Amino acid sequence: MEREPRLRRHTWGWKLARAFVMALGFVCMVAFAVALARATLVPSPASVSLTHTNLHPGNSIRLYFDQPDWRDTVKQVGGNILLGVPFGFLLPVLFPRTRGLVRVVLMTALVMLTVEIAQGLMVTGRAFDIDDVILNSAGAFLGYLVLGRRLGRALHPRRVRWWHPRRPEPAQAEAAEAEERRPRWRRRPSASDSAAEQRPTPDTDKTTTSKRARWTLPASLRAKRP
Question: pTM here?
Fold first, then answer.
């Protein structure tokens, strides 16, 4: 049977450790939100002539790779991917309902889409770019695969879906293991054993049935029988 992760154990020490990890994740999320706002929502008047709205996926990424300076390409592409990595780490820790690869990517895309719309409408020197949303979501995808999935499983119980087999409760599983370790002569009789003991054998069942049939026959027919 699969062991329960340590951070989900019900002792006081592991409860405190779990609370510390959750608090640390909350602090990291606040710091990341501040850094994200500074990186995306601060006006840049000097870039007004250089920015343009991009609604076609792949156009900006193609321009990044076509430019001669590879360091600028790494800065643009890698920076947008790194900006989405913390979503893959922190969402499964702080929001258990967002666990899962598809949910993390969709939540990241929704948040970054909102940020890009705010950039295009309200921030000077910034423009809406759908490729930034794609690169940020790719970063969340990588972050979840590297660490977010493990952190989510370590802190929160696994979601039970309709195709998963039902697992016994921890107390029932421990009782079943203790019962299996007992000698056979000391085990408690189970419900199936009791039913098997009370069930009549086929011969006894036939004998009882024939006796009942005999007593229900009329007296004139019983007298004619040999």
Answer: 0.66
